[in-house]
UniProtKB/TrEMBL annotation:
<keyword id="KW-0975">Bacterial flagellum</keyword>
<dbReference type="GO" id="GO:0005886">
    <property type="term" value="C:plasma membrane"/>
</dbReference>
<keyword id="KW-0966">Cell projection</keyword>
<keyword id="KW-1003">Cell membrane</keyword>
<dbReference type="InterPro" id="IPR001543">
    <property type="entry name" value="FliN-like_C"/>
</dbReference>
<dbReference type="GO" id="GO:0003774">
    <property type="term" value="F:cytoskeletal motor activity"/>
</dbReference>
<feature type="domain" description="Flagellar motor switch protein FliN-like C-terminal">
    <location>
        <begin position="253"/>
        <end position="324"/>
    </location>
</feature>
<keyword id="KW-0283">Flagellar rotation</keyword>
<protein>
    <recommendedName>
        <fullName>Flagellar motor switch protein FliM</fullName>
    </recommendedName>
</protein>
<dbReference type="InterPro" id="IPR036429">
    <property type="entry name" value="SpoA-like_sf"/>
</dbReference>
<dbReference type="InterPro" id="IPR001689">
    <property type="entry name" value="Flag_FliM"/>
</dbReference>
<dbReference type="GO" id="GO:0009425">
    <property type="term" value="C:bacterial-type flagellum basal body"/>
</dbReference>
<keyword id="KW-0145">Chemotaxis</keyword>
<dbReference type="Pfam" id="PF01052">
    <property type="entry name" value="FliMN_C"/>
</dbReference>
<comment type="similarity">
    <text>Belongs to the FliM family.</text>
</comment>
<dbReference type="GO" id="GO:0071978">
    <property type="term" value="P:bacterial-type flagellum-dependent swarming motility"/>
</dbReference>
<keyword id="KW-0472">Membrane</keyword>
Amino acid sequence: MPEDVLSQSEIDALLSAISTGEMSADDFKRDEDAKKVKIYDFKRALRFSKDQVRSLTRIYENFARLLTTYFSAQLRTYVNITVATADQIPYEEYVRSVPNMTILNVIEVPPLEGRMIMEIHPSIAYAMIDRVLGGKGTSINKIENLTEIETRLMTNLFEHTLEHLQEAWSSIAEIDPILSEMEVNPQFLQVATPNETVVVISMNASVGETSGMINICIPHVLLEPIIPKLSAHYWMETNTKVRKPEEVAILQEKIKEAQIELAVELGLTTITIDDFLSLSVGDVIELNSRIDDPLTIKVGKKPKFIGQPGKRNKKMAVQIIDNIEEGEGSNEW
Protein backbone atom coordinates (compact mmCIF):
# COMPACT_ATOMS: atom_id res chain seq x y z
CA MET A 1 0.00 0.00 0.00
CA PRO A 2 1.45 3.49 -0.86
CA GLU A 3 2.72 5.51 2.11
CA ASP A 4 0.34 8.46 1.45
CA VAL A 5 -2.80 6.26 1.82
CA LEU A 6 -4.13 6.11 5.39
CA SER A 7 -6.28 3.41 6.90
CA GLN A 8 -9.70 4.27 8.34
CA SER A 9 -8.42 3.96 11.93
CA GLU A 10 -5.55 6.41 11.19
CA ILE A 11 -7.99 8.91 9.66
CA ASP A 12 -10.25 8.66 12.73
CA ALA A 13 -7.25 9.22 15.04
CA LEU A 14 -6.16 12.35 13.10
CA LEU A 15 -9.67 13.82 13.12
CA SER A 16 -9.88 13.17 16.84
CA ALA A 17 -6.52 14.92 17.46
CA ILE A 18 -7.64 17.98 15.49
CA SER A 19 -11.00 18.17 17.28
CA THR A 20 -9.34 17.96 20.73
CA GLY A 21 -6.72 20.58 19.82
CA GLU A 22 -3.74 18.24 20.09
CA MET A 23 -2.86 19.04 16.44
CA SER A 24 -3.81 21.79 14.02
CA ALA A 25 -4.14 22.06 10.24
CA ASP A 26 -1.00 24.25 10.19
CA ASP A 27 1.02 21.30 11.53
CA PHE A 28 0.02 19.25 8.46
CA LYS A 29 0.90 22.12 6.15
CA ARG A 30 4.37 22.50 7.73
CA ASP A 31 4.99 18.74 7.35
CA GLU A 32 3.95 18.89 3.71
CA ASP A 33 6.25 21.87 3.00
CA ALA A 34 9.14 20.10 4.73
CA LYS A 35 8.78 17.10 2.43
CA LYS A 36 9.26 19.31 -0.65
CA VAL A 37 12.81 20.25 0.39
CA LYS A 38 15.43 18.04 -1.22
CA ILE A 39 19.18 17.97 -0.65
CA TYR A 40 21.13 18.80 -3.84
CA ASP A 41 24.76 17.76 -4.21
CA PHE A 42 26.50 20.27 -6.49
CA LYS A 43 29.45 17.91 -6.90
CA ARG A 44 27.08 15.35 -8.43
CA ALA A 45 25.19 17.64 -10.78
CA LEU A 46 22.79 15.94 -13.16
CA ARG A 47 23.44 17.58 -16.52
CA PHE A 48 21.54 15.10 -18.69
CA SER A 49 17.81 14.52 -18.64
CA LYS A 50 16.41 11.00 -18.33
CA ASP A 51 15.27 11.30 -21.94
CA GLN A 52 18.83 12.01 -23.12
CA VAL A 53 20.26 9.13 -21.09
CA ARG A 54 17.65 6.80 -22.62
CA SER A 55 18.72 7.93 -26.10
CA LEU A 56 22.35 7.10 -25.29
CA THR A 57 21.21 3.75 -23.93
CA ARG A 58 19.48 2.97 -27.26
CA ILE A 59 22.68 3.82 -29.14
CA TYR A 60 24.76 1.47 -27.01
CA GLU A 61 22.16 -1.29 -27.09
CA ASN A 62 22.70 -1.27 -30.85
CA PHE A 63 26.48 -1.15 -30.29
CA ALA A 64 26.22 -4.15 -27.92
CA ARG A 65 24.39 -6.17 -30.61
CA LEU A 66 27.05 -5.28 -33.18
CA LEU A 67 29.84 -6.24 -30.75
CA THR A 68 28.14 -9.58 -30.03
CA THR A 69 28.16 -10.42 -33.73
CA TYR A 70 31.73 -9.16 -34.26
CA PHE A 71 33.32 -10.97 -31.29
CA SER A 72 31.38 -14.18 -31.99
CA ALA A 73 32.87 -14.27 -35.50
CA GLN A 74 36.38 -13.29 -34.40
CA LEU A 75 36.63 -15.59 -31.37
CA ARG A 76 34.53 -18.48 -32.74
CA THR A 77 32.81 -19.04 -29.41
CA TYR A 78 29.66 -18.00 -27.56
CA VAL A 79 29.69 -14.24 -26.92
CA ASN A 80 26.85 -12.20 -25.48
CA ILE A 81 26.96 -8.46 -24.69
CA THR A 82 24.00 -6.52 -23.32
CA VAL A 83 23.53 -3.08 -21.76
CA ALA A 84 23.00 -3.35 -17.99
CA THR A 85 22.80 0.24 -16.70
CA ALA A 86 23.33 3.85 -17.75
CA ASP A 87 24.11 6.53 -15.17
CA GLN A 88 25.64 9.99 -14.89
CA ILE A 89 28.27 10.59 -12.22
CA PRO A 90 31.28 12.90 -11.63
CA TYR A 91 34.42 11.80 -13.49
CA GLU A 92 36.31 11.58 -10.18
CA GLU A 93 33.79 9.06 -8.87
CA TYR A 94 34.09 6.99 -12.03
CA VAL A 95 37.91 6.86 -11.76
CA ARG A 96 37.68 5.71 -8.14
CA SER A 97 35.39 2.84 -9.21
CA VAL A 98 37.85 1.53 -11.82
CA PRO A 99 40.27 -1.24 -10.63
CA ASN A 100 43.94 -0.25 -10.52
CA MET A 101 44.86 -2.73 -13.23
CA THR A 102 42.41 -3.09 -16.12
CA ILE A 103 42.19 -2.51 -19.87
CA LEU A 104 41.34 1.12 -20.70
CA ASN A 105 40.94 2.03 -24.38
CA VAL A 106 40.95 5.80 -24.94
CA ILE A 107 38.93 6.72 -28.03
CA GLU A 108 38.90 10.04 -29.87
CA VAL A 109 35.74 10.78 -31.87
CA PRO A 110 36.42 13.64 -34.31
CA PRO A 111 34.82 15.98 -35.24
CA LEU A 112 33.52 15.97 -31.63
CA GLU A 113 35.89 17.30 -28.98
CA GLY A 114 36.96 15.22 -26.02
CA ARG A 115 37.68 11.52 -25.58
CA MET A 116 35.69 8.57 -24.31
CA ILE A 117 36.93 5.49 -22.47
CA MET A 118 36.09 1.86 -23.16
CA GLU A 119 36.96 -0.09 -20.02
CA ILE A 120 37.19 -3.89 -20.41
CA HIS A 121 37.33 -6.11 -17.36
CA PRO A 122 40.62 -8.09 -17.28
CA SER A 123 38.84 -11.45 -17.17
CA ILE A 124 37.00 -10.65 -20.41
CA ALA A 125 40.08 -9.20 -22.12
CA TYR A 126 42.24 -12.26 -21.34
CA ALA A 127 39.50 -14.70 -22.33
CA MET A 128 39.41 -12.95 -25.72
CA ILE A 129 43.20 -13.09 -26.12
CA ASP A 130 43.24 -16.76 -25.14
CA ARG A 131 40.69 -17.49 -27.89
CA VAL A 132 42.68 -15.48 -30.46
CA LEU A 133 45.77 -17.56 -29.60
CA GLY A 134 43.84 -20.82 -30.03
CA GLY A 135 42.96 -21.52 -26.39
CA LYS A 136 39.65 -22.41 -24.77
CA GLY A 137 38.98 -18.88 -23.54
CA THR A 138 40.56 -19.24 -20.08
CA SER A 139 40.93 -16.01 -18.13
CA ILE A 140 44.18 -15.19 -16.28
CA ASN A 141 44.46 -11.75 -14.65
CA LYS A 142 48.01 -10.50 -15.16
CA ILE A 143 47.39 -7.05 -16.55
CA GLU A 144 50.52 -5.62 -14.88
CA ASN A 145 52.69 -7.99 -16.96
CA LEU A 146 51.27 -7.46 -20.47
CA THR A 147 53.74 -8.57 -23.14
CA GLU A 148 54.21 -6.60 -26.37
CA ILE A 149 52.49 -9.37 -28.32
CA GLU A 150 49.46 -9.39 -25.99
CA THR A 151 49.27 -5.59 -26.14
CA ARG A 152 49.37 -5.65 -29.95
CA LEU A 153 46.72 -8.37 -30.16
CA MET A 154 44.39 -6.50 -27.81
CA THR A 155 44.89 -3.26 -29.72
CA ASN A 156 44.08 -4.94 -33.05
CA LEU A 157 41.02 -6.66 -31.59
CA PHE A 158 39.51 -3.48 -30.15
CA GLU A 159 40.50 -1.22 -33.05
CA HIS A 160 38.09 -3.18 -35.25
CA THR A 161 35.22 -2.43 -32.84
CA LEU A 162 35.43 1.25 -33.78
CA GLU A 163 33.66 0.78 -37.12
CA HIS A 164 30.73 -0.71 -35.20
CA LEU A 165 30.83 2.26 -32.79
CA GLN A 166 30.66 4.56 -35.82
CA GLU A 167 27.65 2.64 -37.15
CA ALA A 168 25.86 2.78 -33.78
CA TRP A 169 26.38 6.57 -33.58
CA SER A 170 25.35 7.23 -37.20
CA SER A 171 21.75 8.00 -36.17
CA ILE A 172 22.80 11.15 -34.28
CA ALA A 173 26.30 12.12 -35.47
CA GLU A 174 28.88 11.24 -38.12
CA ILE A 175 32.01 10.39 -36.16
CA ASP A 176 35.39 8.93 -37.12
CA PRO A 177 36.55 7.13 -33.94
CA ILE A 178 40.28 6.54 -33.37
CA LEU A 179 41.88 4.36 -30.69
CA SER A 180 44.47 6.86 -29.46
CA GLU A 181 45.98 4.87 -26.57
CA MET A 182 45.55 1.89 -24.26
CA GLU A 183 46.23 2.17 -20.52
CA VAL A 184 46.06 -0.24 -17.59
CA ASN A 185 46.04 2.30 -14.73
CA PRO A 186 43.12 4.80 -14.50
CA GLN A 187 45.26 7.26 -12.52
CA PHE A 188 47.25 7.99 -15.68
CA LEU A 189 44.12 9.06 -17.59
CA GLN A 190 42.65 12.54 -17.55
CA VAL A 191 39.87 12.79 -20.13
CA ALA A 192 37.79 15.22 -18.01
CA THR A 193 38.03 17.44 -14.95
CA PRO A 194 37.28 15.68 -11.62
CA ASN A 195 33.86 17.33 -11.17
CA GLU A 196 32.73 17.06 -14.78
CA THR A 197 29.65 14.91 -15.33
CA VAL A 198 30.17 11.76 -17.37
CA VAL A 199 27.69 9.20 -18.63
CA VAL A 200 28.73 5.62 -17.84
CA ILE A 201 27.16 2.85 -19.91
CA SER A 202 27.73 -0.54 -18.26
CA MET A 203 27.45 -3.69 -20.38
CA ASN A 204 27.41 -7.31 -19.25
CA ALA A 205 29.76 -9.42 -21.39
CA SER A 206 30.14 -13.20 -21.61
CA VAL A 207 32.89 -14.96 -23.57
CA GLY A 208 32.42 -18.70 -23.37
CA GLU A 209 32.16 -19.44 -19.65
CA THR A 210 33.87 -16.18 -18.61
CA SER A 211 31.83 -13.11 -17.73
CA GLY A 212 32.65 -9.52 -16.82
CA MET A 213 31.82 -5.89 -17.51
CA ILE A 214 32.55 -3.50 -20.35
CA ASN A 215 32.03 0.15 -19.30
CA ILE A 216 31.86 3.15 -21.61
CA CYS A 217 32.65 6.55 -20.06
CA ILE A 218 31.47 9.58 -22.09
CA PRO A 219 32.31 13.10 -20.78
CA HIS A 220 29.77 15.93 -20.98
CA VAL A 221 32.14 18.04 -23.09
CA LEU A 222 32.04 15.40 -25.84
CA LEU A 223 28.24 15.20 -25.89
CA GLU A 224 27.54 18.92 -25.48
CA PRO A 225 27.36 19.78 -29.24
CA ILE A 226 24.86 16.97 -29.95
CA ILE A 227 22.70 17.14 -26.80
CA PRO A 228 19.67 18.48 -28.76
CA LYS A 229 19.83 15.36 -30.95
CA LEU A 230 19.46 13.12 -27.90
CA SER A 231 15.87 14.23 -27.26
CA ALA A 232 12.90 11.99 -28.08
CA HIS A 233 11.53 14.76 -30.31
CA TYR A 234 14.60 14.55 -32.57
CA TRP A 235 14.38 10.74 -32.80
CA MET A 236 10.69 10.97 -33.78
CA GLU A 237 11.49 13.56 -36.46
CA THR A 238 14.30 11.36 -37.78
CA ASN A 239 12.05 8.29 -37.98
CA THR A 240 9.33 10.22 -39.88
CA LYS A 241 11.68 12.07 -42.20
CA VAL A 242 10.14 13.05 -45.54
CA ARG A 243 12.35 12.58 -48.59
CA LYS A 244 13.33 15.70 -50.54
CA PRO A 245 11.87 16.08 -54.08
CA GLU A 246 15.33 15.73 -55.65
CA GLU A 247 15.89 12.46 -53.74
CA VAL A 248 12.55 11.13 -55.00
CA ALA A 249 13.43 12.11 -58.58
CA ILE A 250 16.80 10.31 -58.39
CA LEU A 251 15.12 7.23 -56.91
CA GLN A 252 12.51 7.20 -59.70
CA GLU A 253 15.23 7.42 -62.38
CA LYS A 254 17.15 4.54 -60.80
CA ILE A 255 13.99 2.41 -60.70
CA LYS A 256 13.38 3.10 -64.41
CA GLU A 257 16.81 1.65 -65.20
CA ALA A 258 16.11 -1.58 -63.28
CA GLN A 259 16.10 -4.75 -65.43
CA ILE A 260 12.99 -6.93 -65.26
CA GLU A 261 12.11 -10.27 -66.84
CA LEU A 262 9.35 -10.19 -69.49
CA ALA A 263 7.91 -13.50 -70.79
CA VAL A 264 5.15 -14.38 -73.25
CA GLU A 265 3.19 -17.55 -72.55
CA LEU A 266 2.22 -19.30 -75.80
CA GLY A 267 0.19 -22.01 -74.06
CA LEU A 268 0.22 -24.92 -71.63
CA THR A 269 -0.13 -28.67 -71.87
CA THR A 270 0.11 -31.78 -69.70
CA ILE A 271 2.18 -34.85 -70.55
CA THR A 272 3.26 -37.97 -68.73
CA ILE A 273 6.74 -38.40 -67.31
CA ASP A 274 7.31 -41.24 -69.78
CA ASP A 275 6.52 -38.91 -72.71
CA PHE A 276 8.74 -36.21 -71.21
CA LEU A 277 11.71 -38.59 -70.88
CA SER A 278 11.30 -39.74 -74.50
CA LEU A 279 11.29 -36.22 -76.00
CA SER A 280 13.92 -35.53 -78.66
CA VAL A 281 14.86 -32.80 -81.13
CA GLY A 282 12.12 -32.30 -83.75
CA ASP A 283 9.20 -33.57 -81.64
CA VAL A 284 6.03 -31.44 -81.68
CA ILE A 285 4.11 -30.70 -78.46
CA GLU A 286 0.42 -29.85 -78.80
CA LEU A 287 -0.63 -26.90 -76.60
CA ASN A 288 -4.07 -26.28 -75.09
CA SER A 289 -4.57 -22.95 -76.92
CA ARG A 290 -5.63 -22.04 -80.46
CA ILE A 291 -3.35 -20.16 -82.86
CA ASP A 292 -5.69 -17.13 -82.79
CA ASP A 293 -6.05 -17.01 -78.99
CA PRO A 294 -4.53 -13.95 -77.20
CA LEU A 295 -1.23 -14.49 -75.38
CA THR A 296 -0.51 -13.80 -71.71
CA ILE A 297 2.47 -11.49 -71.11
CA LYS A 298 4.10 -11.85 -67.67
CA VAL A 299 6.33 -9.42 -65.80
CA GLY A 300 8.40 -11.63 -63.54
CA LYS A 301 5.88 -14.37 -62.88
CA LYS A 302 2.85 -12.10 -62.64
CA PRO A 303 0.43 -11.77 -65.63
CA LYS A 304 0.24 -8.06 -66.57
CA PHE A 305 -0.80 -7.77 -70.27
CA ILE A 306 -2.71 -9.47 -73.08
CA GLY A 307 -0.94 -9.57 -76.48
CA GLN A 308 -0.97 -11.07 -79.94
CA PRO A 309 1.98 -12.62 -81.81
CA GLY A 310 3.50 -11.19 -84.97
CA LYS A 311 6.74 -10.06 -86.63
CA ARG A 312 8.70 -6.80 -86.61
CA ASN A 313 11.76 -6.27 -88.80
CA LYS A 314 11.77 -9.99 -89.63
CA LYS A 315 11.90 -10.88 -85.93
CA MET A 316 9.32 -12.57 -83.72
CA ALA A 317 7.38 -9.96 -81.72
CA VAL A 318 4.29 -9.54 -79.56
CA GLN A 319 1.90 -6.60 -79.56
CA ILE A 320 0.23 -5.50 -76.29
CA ILE A 321 -3.51 -5.12 -76.82
CA ASP A 322 -4.84 -4.91 -73.24
CA ASN A 323 -3.94 -4.80 -69.53
CA ILE A 324 -4.74 -7.48 -66.99
CA GLU A 325 -6.45 -5.79 -64.06
CA GLU A 326 -5.42 -6.64 -60.49
CA GLY A 327 -7.14 -9.81 -59.38
CA GLU A 328 -7.39 -11.32 -62.87
CA GLY A 329 -5.32 -14.38 -63.64
CA SER A 330 -2.56 -15.65 -61.37
CA ASN A 331 -0.99 -13.34 -58.76
CA GLU A 332 1.96 -15.57 -57.95
CA TRP A 333 5.43 -14.01 -58.06
